Amino acid sequence: MDPLSVELKVSEDGMEAYIKINSPEDGRIPSVDEILSFLAENGVVFGIDESAIRDAIENKKFGEFILVARGERPKDGVDGYIDYKFNKDRELKPVILEDGRVDYRNLESVESVVKGQLLAVKVPPEPEKDGKNVMGKVVKAYKPKDPKIPAGKNTVVSEDGMKLFAACDGHVVFENGKVVVYPVFTRKGDVDYSIGNIEFVGDVVIMGNVLTDFKVKAGGNLEVHKLVEGATLEAEGNIVVRGGVFGRGKAVIKAKGDVFLKFADQAIIEAGGNVVADESIINCKVMARGSVIAKGRKGVVIGGEVFAGDTVDVTHLGSDLGVITSVEVGLDPALREEYIQITNELAEFQNKLRDVTKGVELLKSMEEKLGALPEDKRELYLRMTKAMFQIKGQVERLKKRKEELEEKIEKVKKEGKVIVRGVVYPGVRITIRGVKLVVKEAIKEVVFYREGNEIKVGALRETR
Asked: In the chain, what's the furthest Cα-to-Cα distance?
């Protein structure tokens, strides 16, 4: 067969092969077997349609490309998934009304389950099927994901591994990729000497007060129905204080989530999310990675220090008595606190290093003059030299951590705003991402924001 009488064309994905039979100059038409041999010689060995070749020859379909081989396309698998039988994306937050008040009556934050209740079902993946191109090469299909049942604490997996059940009564949450059931601890009275400190793995509900010097720690959310005095509250989730906090300079409120309260007086409050007060925050140190909000009709922040990663939004800021009130926004308070601590520690160790180095150098100079140190001085020299190297190691570690924190602080900087919907009074000190401003006179309905290296004061209506 004349090698020029047949042309071959293979698609880019290798799934289709075409031939074109040119009009033979000598009148000789290639046979089916000759074309099959031609295809094989050129690597086309799979999915060949002999009937299409025969038809082209018999009907003299010359000068046009004819599809003569088709590969088998791969069939991708379909990922398996988990069908959750509860609302795993529920946000454990009370409703904040338009006037800034917190509606504690409609929390609806807990999804209760009973022992044996179905929590999740695994839907298995649909298997893949590899394909093959006309050249006989295997074309791999997508291999689907086969998820594992996300069994967490207080859950039970069925024998076939396809279903997840609650192992106890409690409330269900989805955290860190796992389904977890937290039983709830409820204290009907006060937290006092009759019960002592409380530490619980799940949610804690205190129906009464938490008295001074007592501590309540919750592995989930923590809710206090009445007052918190000079006590300590800690929670892995949110903290809600329906009454308020009379801190007496001793109260500490720490939540990895949000903190919601009616008012706070002389307390330290830390939140991984927002701090929301229905009424007032007075003479407190507040640190929130999110925002600090006190914008109800009585929403006021007076005295103390407020640090927010994002925004401070209040009705009134400061007081007409000129009480010094410090507000800082735009930086992660936790990183800021650690940065200050590391900076202080570094300065302390650098001072120690300076003193020890002087002592080592003095003893070394003495040794050079005398030829040898007395035994007691020799021991002191060795101890101080060892201490010097240890302190040097601490200094290097602290320097490295300080540099890491500076990088982190730069990365997580937010715009930062201070919004005052009523009056901001003289004596208020505002810092936005390192730039400072002291309020000299009372101003109404304003927003403070940073522009370049200055803090600007704009009318609140311009930001609405």
From this structure: 117
